[in-house]
Batch of 2 targets.
Target 1
Amino acid sequence: MEKFIKLKSIPAHIPLMNIDTDMIIPKQFLKTIKRTGLGKSLFYEMRYDESGKLIDEFILNNDPYSKSKILLAGKNFGCGSSREHAPWALIDFGIRCVISPSFADIFYNNCFNNGILPIIIDEKSIQELYEYSKRKEEIEVDLNEQMILYGNKKLTFDIEPAKKKRLLEGLDNIGLSLKKIPNIEKFENSMNKTKPWI
Amino acid sequence: MSKTLYDKIWDDHLVHEDNDGTALLYVDRHLVHEVTSPQAFEGLRIQGRQVRKPKLTLAVPDHNVPTTDRSKGISDKQSKIQVDTLRNNCKEFGINLFDVNDKRQGIVHIIGPEQGFTQPGTVIVCGDSHTATHGAFGSLAFGIGTSEVEHVLATQTLIQKKSKNFRVNVNGSLPAGVTSKDVILKIIGTIGTAGGTGYVIEFAGEVIRNLSVEQRMTICNMTIEAGARAGLIAPDDKTIEYFKDRPMSPKGDNWTKAVAHWKKLFSDSDAKFDKEVNIDAKEIEPLVTWGTSPQDVSPITGEVPDPEKEKDKDRRIAMYRSLEYMGLKPKMKISDIKVDKIFIGSCTNGRIEDLRLAAKLLKGKKIASDVSAMVVPGSGLVKKQAEEEGIDKVFKNAGFEWREPGCSMCLGMNEDQLSSKERCASTSNRNFEGRQGRGGRTHLVSPGMAVAAAIKGYLADVREIN
């Protein structure tokens, strides 16, 4: 997994609450057996009209936002289906950081398995970043310092230390958990005695 | 120290815990389907990793399978590749598969309990958010992403942080025409789609106790629509009775031991909950959703709300967007909303009791002439049972199509979709934009309300059907 340390980009703002994973990547694109190639279908129904033409008004269809690596969004981002195709589509498009007042649980976890940093900050701060984004100037996200820098201002954010470490080092969770095989075996042996029906 | 049901199951599955509370949790049961698993198996192959406990995983294709005649195979190329890939992966890694033409094939959350693969007190995961369904049996069940599917396959564990405890008590008794679908819609309408974020919700109270286990599944199924990690209902005698003699249930001495364990699965009377909400059953009416979020609920006797009366700005914007998408005007009567399609099925309402209830209301009646309607049983065994009871004939005689089992129009990954602006009364779980097909308009309802809408051709009150 690619490490996440610092990221600079002009952020794109989608001012909607409850952006669900069906919106992020609709069902017809879930038939793939790969993780890549979903970026062109990100936000498909908001980005393309029924004939498949780009919708001019949608922010990600307009420069410089078409190259945004940071997304600003309303609360409860990523609600709905557990599909990891949602973070896969974001990352394939180039978005590596989503900033929202709150995230849905499964989507939030999925981000950390794909090198995406989900940042939780209050709505007022999002509004401020949005106002700033209209200047079409870059903002910087510094994970180590837990800081968002824009112009001469800065915002701080919270993140669980374990999740932060994971992104900073690009760690492979499975590899780490496999080191705990002795604990898992011990657990299984004890379970075989106490719950033999499992 | 007193514990909640969630605390008990959590503690019972803790393999390891770091100082910061990051835990490695043992997974007893893992369900796999064709859409969210190919990349997980591919990951194992790339890393040269094995499946740690193949017997603890059960696989079934359900999301994109056709619900029409399957004897000639799957015509959609991409769907066929996914189903073939699942078959090959199961063979390579030694995983039990109920294939497309197996009588036991069906929606993953219906076949788990049906087979006794689901069991009380277990930790159950699946790459599908509606895994919460299994919580109805007192198991800690939740949806995971594909990377986590891979983690479970490789280690039989999952990295988790403990959620907080939330209890929803539904007190009193349900009025006529009100079902568990209305109860969960009422709960989501009350606490909101993010009301459960960060929590595991235990459902309790007289109403929950009086529900059948299948009705309880509808409640836990939609817990995710309230944002919660999982929904839980303490097992009781009904639960134990349900599992007796299921193909994968414990047998003999193990059955006795298992039952003794299951009987200890309840929240202690003085257990502490971080949040608690009480719902009075007599205030619940048959409900429908009017918008594009499951929290957008209204009684069937009500009106489409007026966004101008909403104080929260973001919510007001969302309401306007929903109404435009749904093609509705503020203050119009819900019962004046005309429908084009009816869908009965899904992991929310595709079980035998749902079909029985719908058929009982439908018997001897016809659907409205300009409506098309379909029933998609939740599994091959549900379909078979229904056919033995003559339920299929009731539906067919009324004008419904009687289909093969699968997820079908709940998410429209196969051919079963709404066209743009088509309006559907659906017993499924999500009314998101485009969920049932691009531009399609979904109204979530109970099976009885779906029948009422089918007969009248409008969203209609099930209490007026006799």
Note: Chain B has a mean pLDDT of 97.
Target 2
Amino acid sequence: MVIGTSPPRRDGMDKLTGRSLYSDDLRPDGVWYGATVRSTRAHARLRSVRRSEDFDWSNVVFVTAADIPGLNVVSLMTDDQPVLADGLVRHVTEPIALVAAPTRELALEAVRHVLVEYEDLPALFDPLVAEGHGVRIFGEDNVYKRIHIEHGTRTNTTAHLIRGRYTTGLQEQLYIEPQSMIAELRPDGGITLTGSMQCPYYIDRAVKRMLGHDRVNVAQAVTGGGFGGKEEYPSILACHASLLALAAGRPVKITYRRDEDLRATTKRHPAIIDLATLVSSDGRLLELHGRIWMDGGAYHTLSTVVLSRAILHVQGPYRCPYVDLEGTVVATNTPPNGAFRGFGAPQAQWAMERHMDRIARHVGMDPLALRRLNLVVDGDVTATGQTLRNPGGFAVLEAAERAATAPVKRKHVRPGVVGAEMREGRGVALAWHGCGFTGNGEAKIRGTVGLELRGNQVAVLSSSTDIGQGTETIFPMIVADTLGIPMSRVFNTAHDTGFVPDSGPTVASRTAMVVGGTCEKAAQRLLRALREAHGEGDFDTLAARAAAAGTPMRVNETYEVDASVQWNPDTYQGDAYPCYGWSCVIVDLRVDVDTGEIIYDRVVTATDVGKALSPVLAAGQIEGGTLQALGWATQEEVVLDAQGCMRNDRLTNYIIPTALDGPEMVTELVEIPYEGGPFGAKGIGEIPMDAPAAAVAQAIEAACGAVLDSLPMTPERVFAAMEAR
Amino acid sequence: MIVRFNCNGRSVQVDTPPMARLLDVLREDLRLVGSKEGCGEGECGACTVRVDGEPVMSCLVPVAQIEGCRVQTIEGLGNPIVHAVQTAMLATGGAQCGICTPGICMSAAALLDVDPHPTPDAVRVALAGNLCRCTGYQKVIDAVCGALAEREA
């Protein structure tokens, strides 16, 4: 068995020796470089878009919306977002025109010589103002989606009413490899796209609809991080590169510079969350009333699904007999927000965990005792009426507490700082996270995996990309153990829509659990097919017979949703997720009382992963997600100018955690198996984003009494909160 | 101008504008694409190479400055024998998406030359200029701390 061990990752040595080829490392013969002319206005009519006469355009191609052969739409959920603006821009940085030239420098020079005349329109930046406003950005009322859930029985006992507002800001995914895509012309007049991406089939569909024909294939290059930022956005680069390749009659590569990537691409949705609870005097939750507003930005992207996940997670891992929740995601004239690890759940659980601390303050209880009292147990029912089976809240809490009894090794490296007055604090937070798509999502997608016998080796064909999390390693492990052969004889093929089936997108903590589970079933199907064709025997015997017979052997397996999972998308009642992961985070930090700066000493996490298929890869997901959450908690702040454009568009002023900022991490993997996942595995990619920020806030409060309900908790805000005590 | 330097043990000369970035000379002229560009302004460290043994951000170095220098890139670090830090990173899971990994290996190798058994704090200082968004750094630090331990055991 290789499952449960940690073989070296398949792509590891190539990455460690610099041999892996990422999109910008590829240089097809005759390639030109593309660049984008972007709006400088938040909301405006385009009076004219033309090329300046004082520039030599002879060696530059120029493309506008008029050159789009098919639909001028970035296909995703709704058809509201154009590939190139046609007469109107709804946000700053919106693409208006494209250029390509033999060098990057010439392409960027050409962009500066495209003249755009605007007629400004009133612009809206605040979702609370934009909802129902007369200035229209989307539909009748600028509301992308409103979701309401009411469940349970109201209380008739006397209770404490406790209200709070909790907010979160934009966050950039900050994959270290900027967005990049290459379009090449095929001999049949079609287009091959190769680039940095999570979801080849999103791009495949988007480019086909834009071109108006199906002669398109999409292949992933080695991808330098995604975190959701390369879920839907790469479709835009792919459409742009395709148009330029057609215009230039040659391959075109578009690689964003970091500043452009920061200004133009999607971010985590900001949220405003009002919670009101009725709580018994001994601390039991009786009613939860929640109102969530999210800022979707100027186009829909995936906003309705982000809102959905926020609503479904806002209750947190707590029992509450009556829940009344309403969420609204609103259009504003800011660059569209989109997928980012956690997908609405981190915002929602930041609010609920902070609210639990507020309740604890109000009723005079220890925050952890309050959580224990309300933590869900077997048989408790969620806001959607789903009965929880074997929830892991207590298991992860106990595992984290055990690990946190070890003494904290205080970090003392703070170059340049001497004699600061530091206060120590510890915070504890809990979270749950629904694994895989919400409700009937998997039934709609019907993700498929192919297995092909090649001699005595087995090829895994899927569109599930490795963006660092380890798909190239995990799928072969699952298939090898199911077939009873060494992992060395199983490999993933390239993720090219020209020959792999659509396994669904690489998102939603679903790849190992759902597509990995499909790999397991595909391997079982392959064994059955071999036995039907070649009699009894183990895999090696049958593979040898198949090779001797010379008959190709290929099976496809499509994910079947467990029939017991019932979901009604209209009422939002039923089984929202096939299973949940559970997490507990204990943060030890110090606050510099002169500056408000936070020093992270140690973070203990305990996470229910179902089954750690590869403990090293699983812990890697948890630790990376945890630090991304700490960045969101205290460091990462997007500052917008008056047009809604990101002002701190560089790594010198959009600050993500360095090795010096990061804490010692102690990572406990708890295994409560999910029978529907491969070998019991649950999805784990996103849950580490959920609990850390709230644990940090509680630790800050414990250290210095400062109460913070807004993210990020930058030194300035911590200092102000200390002053306000 | 013609710039001559030693790159991964070989003498090379390139004809280039003097202010061309070392990173571009490596990637475009010499086709050594293991050094990556993550920000282009010396913040992310994905382009880290060693010049006369010191780790430098090659996106900030005008190529004229390296006339006569010894430059080592990731292509030269593990060649012909994989460096101990590369082996250790593979074992601990210090590489995920891999885009920052070449730069981290170069900074770590430079540290290990002067401090073969660094403390976690020393590694955090040495790698403070190499941003990683995937790992949370713990497995990277474990790798660098233990890279040379096995060899001498």
Note: Chain A touches chain B through 60 residues (CB under 8 Å).
